[in-house]
Recover the amino acids of this structure.
């Protein structure tokens, strides 16, 4: 039935900026501290307290806007968004409304069908977060934690550009990657440093006007994005197919029940009564300031992937894996800069290094210079590929110099022709039947002999040298 | 100058003087608490401070650590601020003694100090009358001679109007001259801390101590320090504009005569006096009574009973808790303004009211710029349309009460410095004249005020 319907989705993403202190006071913006310990008169909204803007938050917001290709406005205006809620200390949230920090950007992402699509960024604005209401901490009462109150956020609003929940998710992953690259946010959905609200509507295929939208909230994990949006799409289609009309509701996603439910009408009938925040002058950004922030932007993921392909002759897939995070990309390039062959370095990073990092909270434990030297040992024939993996494990846990570690583990290959010849002679003497068969034309037995030499040498023999010596000796 | 040995005696004498005027209901601080605090402050005061030993009473909407800060409201009954206003900190650092908290209209909303949950303040010279407001407690204490100086706040005239009605000097500085950090907000784009003083000199001196940049108030500007002028020999070189819109037919004849005499004095001292026009003046009160309540409706949202202040405990849900706490905690005038403010910001009404009022505000500011651009240094107007009115007289009609601000709200809307200086008496009641200056040029205004202060009493005597 979905084929007859088109889904239209727009996303509003709140991203917590990575600042040490809050948006309008000096309190720590750290996550997870004991409740109500990072508070002061300003973020508690005590009578007489006034907001003073955090310059670092402005810098990060401008960088985020530039990374998303937005126009940063030389003058933007803070506004009060008025509503009563116990975790909103002042009774209003300081946000931006009709004159936001930035507008008109775009994000290109790879859709699930492999096509590159572009989402428009309608606006990006700065605001402060509210506190947290804890409804399940104590029986029958709601507790309020104001540690989060006043933490700086940017809200990033897309156009109604996504045609499926899968596209919405692909965009979000790309957005997260860009923001992490720029270093403006941790983008941790589980810690709430990235939060998503979605506007969802459906229309019959071929229609151009948008259907009545609902707002889906409380999507607090990437895994839930597709589920929540898919449920809401299906619900709307079912309503329309049954001849009903979609009501303009706010829907809450319940991850435990995997269901979307309308928020009570009473809670959503908001008139926010926005007006310009009189406690803060307009945010005026000099051209040089914006240029300076532009200069501080790192190479963005798409550009980096492209460069990896051309500069290091990597496949698109490898470039994507290595470019997925700035930390991994930088690690990879450091190994190459330390002299490793690009493809070999790529294989090691994508293989051993990332596997090890996965088990050690994303720490890339072997320094890039060490890994480059280890790769050099393989290339020079001093260690086998298999032995190098053992050396890598040792380097990851205890560190050290690759050659020394390989020697200590007895993994350095013997490339001395004399020693190898001794092992070869030993093997030829001990396997007369096979030698006869080989000489009778069964040359594929060569690998058997190499194996025997490796066994005799307890893995130390350079297999290439062993093969060469074997070939010589077996012929005669 | 106070010597360190004298300060304890001075603190005691201040407490004694304040004790004698208790019947005015101008001071909210209990006497025992005040005596103990003054003694403590005297011992701690820094002898090298420029205000060493000067007692300064502080309006109760300015946060202090020494006393409660209630804004004359039940919703802040017993509230002790967790921090001190920047202006209070600067006074203490300069060696001044905070001589208690003064009564005011609830959250500074009013022009008579009748809207206080602690009862009305009496006019010091006629107890049947009001001292003006909202800084009526501060004005009454200064007029009664209990303190030389008191802090007030001025959103639409709340320093200048009571100063005028009580016969003292009241200065509202340029918006952005004095930090608002710790001033409990009413209309944030209009509020400034101001000073009421027995003399121009005392008021100006205290103003210079409290003014200057404060990183905790983003609207407080980084300007050259306030220059303190000396008493001038004459006013030669000054061009003083007299805006005709401030002398309407219904102006009290006594006030008109006092103003004419003041203008004559300034002319006699060598000032060039010109009639000027500020054509949008009549729209100022309506614009003010949209903008100030709009901002107040948001500023007062935080009094919800959740984090501080009294709370209605038996509410079945959070909405009921808000309704009961705010319905019970706010007085009628505050509720009226919160409702007006909420209304004018609502969807569908914003453009017709709030946006329109902001446009009017811009036109009023432009009126002033036009006059100043044509060489006028200062404007002179009456501060109030009439002398102090009877208690209860305007309570039933809020619009009559609001019209008392007709000459003072313009300076707040335009962010300009303005002050009231006594210019005589009408039927025994003081009246003030208002000087309005250019932004961040308080010194010209203060200089002209010095001249009036010196010349008015003698001329008034001679005319009697």
């Amino acid at each position: 039935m979905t084929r007859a319907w088109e889904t239209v989705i727009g996303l509003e993403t709140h991203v917590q900026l990575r600042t040490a202190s809050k948006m309008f006071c000096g309190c720590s913006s750290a996550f997870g501290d004991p409740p109500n310990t990072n508070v002061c008169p300003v973020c508690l909204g005590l009578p007489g307290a006034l907001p003073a803007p955090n310059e670092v938050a402005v810098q990060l917001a401008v960088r985020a806007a530039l990374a998303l290709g937005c126009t940063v406005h030389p003058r933007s205006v803070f506004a009060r968004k008025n509503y009563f809620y116990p975790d909103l200390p002042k009774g209003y949230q300081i946000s931006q409304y009709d004159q936001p920090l930035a507008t008109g950007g775009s994000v290109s992402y790879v859709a699930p069908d492999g096509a590159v699509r572009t989402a428009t960024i309608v606006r990006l604005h700065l605001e402060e977060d509210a506190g947290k209401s804890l409804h399940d901490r104590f029986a029958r009462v709601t507790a309020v934690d104001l540690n989060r109150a006043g933490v700086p956020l940017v809200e990033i609003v897309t156009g109604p550009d996504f045609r499926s929940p899968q596209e919405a998710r692909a965009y979000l992953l790309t957005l997260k990657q860009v923001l992490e690259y720029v270093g403006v946010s941790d983008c941790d959905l589980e810690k709430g440093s990235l939060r998503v609200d979605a506007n969802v509507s459906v229309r019959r295929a071929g229609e151009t006007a948008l259907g009545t939208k609902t707002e889906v909230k409380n999507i607090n994990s990437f895994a839930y994005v597709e589920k929540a949006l898919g449920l809401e799409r299906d619900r709307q289609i079912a309503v329309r197919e049954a001849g009903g009309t979609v009501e303009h509701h706010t829907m809450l996603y319940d991850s435990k029940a995997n269901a979307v439910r309308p928020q009570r009408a009473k809670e959503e009938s908001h008139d926010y009564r926005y007006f310009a925040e009189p406690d803060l002058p307009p945010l005026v950004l000099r051209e040089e300031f914006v240029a300076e922030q532009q200069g501080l932007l790192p190479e963005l993921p798409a550009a980096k992937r492209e460069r990896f392909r051309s500069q290091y002759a990597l496949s698109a897939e490898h470039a994507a894996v290595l470019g997925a995070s700035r930390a991994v990309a930088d690690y990879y390039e450091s190994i190459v800069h330390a002299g490793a062959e690009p493809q070999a370095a790529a294989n090691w990073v994508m293989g051993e290094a990332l596997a090890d990092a996965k088990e050690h909270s994303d720490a890339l434990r072997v320094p890039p210079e060490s890994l480059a030297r280890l790769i050099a040992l393989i290339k020079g024939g001093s260690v086998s590929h298999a032995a190098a993996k053992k050396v890598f494990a040792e380097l990851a846990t205890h560190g050290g110099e690759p050659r020394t570690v390989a020697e200590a583990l007895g993994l350095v290959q013997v490339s001395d022709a004399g020693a190898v010849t001794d092992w070869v002679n030993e093997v030829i003497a001990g396997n007369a039947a096979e030698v006869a068969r080989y000489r009778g034309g069964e040359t594929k037995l060569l690998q058997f002999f190499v194996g025997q030499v490796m066994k005799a040498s307890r893995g130390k023999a350079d297999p290439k040298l062993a093969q060469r010596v074997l070939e010589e000796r077996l012929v005669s | 100058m106070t010597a360190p040995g004298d300060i304890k005696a001075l603190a005691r004498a201040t407490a004694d003087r304040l004790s004698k005027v208790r019947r005015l209901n101008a001071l909210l601080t209990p006497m025992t608490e005040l005596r103990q605090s003054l003694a403590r402050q005297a011992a701690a005061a820094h002898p090298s401070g420029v205000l060493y030993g000067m007692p300064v009473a502080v309006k109760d909407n300015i946060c202090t650590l020494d006393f409660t800060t209630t804004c004359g409201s039940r919703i802040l009954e017993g509230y002790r601020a967790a921090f001190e206003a920047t202006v209070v900190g600067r006074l203490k650092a300069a060696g001044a003694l905070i001589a208690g908290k003064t009564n005011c209209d609830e959250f500074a909303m009013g022009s008579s100090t009748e809207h206080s949950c602690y009862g009305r303040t009496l006019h010091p010279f006629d107890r049947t009358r009001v001292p003006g407001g909202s800084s009526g407690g501060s004005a009454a204490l200064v007029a009664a001679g209990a303190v030389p100086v008191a802090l007030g706040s001025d959103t639409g005239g709340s320093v200048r109007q009571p100063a005028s009605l009580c016969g003292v000097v009241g200065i509202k500085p340029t918006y952005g001259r004095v930090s608002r950090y710790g001033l409990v907000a009413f209309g944030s784009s209009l509020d400034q801390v101001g000073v009421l003083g027995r003399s121009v000199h005392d008021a100006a001196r205290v103003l210079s101590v409290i003014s200057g940049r404060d990183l905790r108030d983003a609207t407080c500007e980084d300007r050259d320090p306030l220059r303190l002028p000396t008493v001038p020999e004459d006013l030669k070189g000054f061009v003083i504009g007299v805006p005709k819109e401030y002398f309407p037919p219904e102006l009290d004849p006594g006030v008109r005569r006092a103003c004419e005499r003041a203008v004559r004095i300034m002319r006699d001292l060598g000032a060039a006096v010109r009639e000027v026009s500020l054509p949008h003046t009549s729209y100022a009160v309506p614009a003010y009574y949209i903008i100030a309540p709009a901002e107040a409706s948001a500023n007062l949202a935080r009094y919800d009973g959740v984090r501080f202040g009294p709370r209605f405990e038996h509410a079945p849900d959070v909405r009921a808790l808000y309704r009961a706490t705010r319905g019970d905690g706010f007085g009628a005038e505050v509720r009226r303004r919160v409702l007006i403010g909420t209304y004018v910001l609502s969807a569908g009404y914003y453009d017709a009211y709030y946006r329109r009022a902001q446009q009017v505000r811009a036109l009023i500011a432009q009126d002033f710029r036009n006059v100043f651009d044509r060489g006028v240094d200062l404007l002179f107007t009456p501060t109030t349309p009439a002398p102090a009115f009877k208690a209860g007289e305007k309570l039933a009609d809020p619009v009559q009460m609001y019209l008392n601000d007709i000459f003072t709200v313009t300076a707040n809307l335009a962010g300009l410095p303005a002050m009231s200086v006594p210019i005589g008496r009408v039927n025994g009641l003081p009246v003030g004249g208002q000087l309005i200056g250019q932004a961040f040029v308080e010194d010209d205004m203060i200089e002209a005020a010095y001249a009036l202060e010196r010349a008015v009493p003698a001329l008034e005597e001679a005319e009697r």
Observations:
- The mean pLDDT of chain A is 93.
- The interface with chain B takes residues 41, 44-53, 80, 82, 84, 86, 89-92, 142, 144, 271, 273-275, 278-281 of chain A (CB under 8 Å).
- Chain A has three domains: 2-291, 299-408, 417-475.
- The first helix of chain A runs from residue 41 to 44.
